[in-house]
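[job 0412] stage=complex_fold ligand=heme C status=START
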Amino acid sequence: VTKLPRLLLAGILFLTIAPRGVADAAPERGRTLAAACAECHTAPGGAAFAGGHTVETPSGTVLAPNITPDRKTGIGGWSEDELIAYLRTGHNAHATATGPMAEIVAQASSRLSAPDLHALAVYLAGIPAVSAAAQSAPAASDPAGLQAGKAIYSDVCTACHGWEGAGTPGLFPALRGSAVVTAPDPAGLLATILHGARTPPTDAAPTGAAMPSFGRKLDDAAIATVATFLRSVWGNSAAPVDAATVAVARRSTR
Ligand code: HEC
Ligand code: HEC
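[job 0412] stage=complex_fold status=DONE, emitting structure tokens
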């Protein structure tokens, strides 16, 4: 667990004042800018940009996910335009930036020039794909538990995220293929369900959508059940979550 404010400040400062090289060829520029992203997205001793780095924030512990081009556990399914939209506005059809990433978007990446964003996107698309699934246990296969999770999901989540977890582009992020949902450490997923989340307003998208908190409405067992469901369906594949883990998340991220 890393102290957030230092990393956040470093990332924002670096991205806004990143010095230009003499030759400044686009690939070098992309590499220079991506160094600020690695601060959070590369775990100490881990594969570059493969995530797994947890960050302590005032509203809880969040995980900087895998942003390598792995199609299943990274952002390999994102087009360059989609990645640039995320970095400019904080959201796209796949995900919405929350917590520290929302700050990075609002204060740094939304201010990068179009050529800088392009250089960064091209660089990230070219790094080795790393599968996070290799590090996590297999998904749950208990039919009764999955049925119960589906019932909770249908009751309280489908209105925004859709029956098949596809979300609504620009409004509600997809939960199918979401790195937050399938991260080996479920901390980010649990914090989102417990406390909700809000998209940062940016110049390009002035009103941010909000996700309500379910910490009062759902008890630990229900949150574990719906989290396990989400980690096991629509091609998502990550280890189940138990109620004890939710209880710890609830205490540590109040
Ligand atoms: C201060 C730490 C920090 C820095 C610096 C940072 N990020 Fe993030 N990033 C996060 C966290 C935490 C998340 C997960 C939060 C979320 O998805 O709402 C995230 C999420 C993302 C996602 C979404 C991945 C997904 O599948 O949902 C992308 C893409 C991303 N970051 C790219 C970048 C890029 C590119 C940079 C550098 C310009 C960067 N980040 C810098 C912490 C950081
Ligand atoms: C009223 C609409 C609404 C409902 C109901 C809702 N969400 Fe969300 N959810 C959102 C929005 C909006 C976001 C984007 C978060 C942000 O803006 O920071 C989001 C984000 C998320 C994310 C982060 C996804 C990512 O990849 O960044 C997860 C996980 C999530 N919701 C799970 C759930 C679960 C589980 C439920 C049901 C218990 C639920 N949501 C109910 C609106 C909703």
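Residues 7-8, 11, 15, 36-37, 39-41, 55, 62, 64-65, 67, 75, 86-87, 95, 97-101, 104, 109, 120, 179-180, 188 surround heme C (ligand 1) (CB under 6 Å).
[job 0412] exit 0
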